[in-house]
Design goal:
outer membrane lipoprotein receptor (LolB), chain A; 208 residues; 44% strand; globular
Length: 208
């Protein structure tokens, strides 16, 4: 579930300063301008009945093209790291790391739109929604009906994305809120490298 959410978010977790305007304008502007991003996040998964079934937080870092680090903190710590060639998924509790060539994993997923700068309109119907909560909202509906989610609502202001609501095919909603984003500044490239700690089982092979 977390890996799926990660790939969905990779399309949208791009923040940069934008001029006032519609949600579509703000979305297009930060999609085009971002180079690096460093931000905290909180995440909740809400059931169809409105109950919170999962709550987590962590940090996300991005360096285009293709490098990223999505880190869940706390009791269920997990790291998803790409060096631009291979993707590592490290579960600290299980002492297990899985690695695959990045291209084999992301395929045509939303993550590919980020790393390859694919036109968002080729994969999603983009609709301007009414403003609320002090944010401009945009709804994205995938053109492919076979995906894991039905629609994504993105809340933006002049600073960029502030909120996301992901509605999946099972009636669950994942809400994301961003904390203190820093964009287009230098990020230590060591953050995008991963070496399995001693004693960790490794499944798969990195890209050659």
């Amino acid at each position: 579930m977390r890996l799926f959410i990660f790939f969905v978010l990779m399309l949208f977790l791009l923040m940069t300063s934008v001029e006032a305007g519609s949600g579509k304008q703000q979305l297009n502007q930060f999609m085009q301008k971002v180079v690096t991003l460093d931000t905290g996040f909180t995440q909740e998964v809400i059931s169809e009945d409105g109950d919170i079934v999962q709550s987590s937080h962590g940090r996300f870092m991005l360096s285009r093209p293709g490098k990223f680090r999505w880190e869940y903190e706390g009791a269920t710590a997990q790291e998803i790291i790409s060096d631009g060639v291979s993707l590592w998924i490290y579960d600290k509790e299980l002492a297990q790391a899985t690695v695959k060539p990045l291209d084999d994993v992301i395929g045509a997923s939303p993550a590919a739109i980020l790393t390859r700068q694919r036109d968002i309109n080729k994969d999603y119907k983009v609709i301007e929604k009414s403003s609320s909560e002090g944010l401009n909202w945009v709804e994205l509906t995938p053109l492919d009906d076979n995906g894991d989610f039905k629609r994504i609502l993105i809340g933006l202001d002049q600073k960029g994305i502030q909120a996301m609501n992901l509605h999946d095919q099972f009636g669950q909603t994942t809400t994301i809120r961003f904390r203190m984003p820093v964009f287009n500044t230098s990020i230590n490239q060591e953050n995008f490298k991963f070496s399995p700690p001693a004693g960790v089982d490794v499944i798969g092979q990195p890209a050659s």
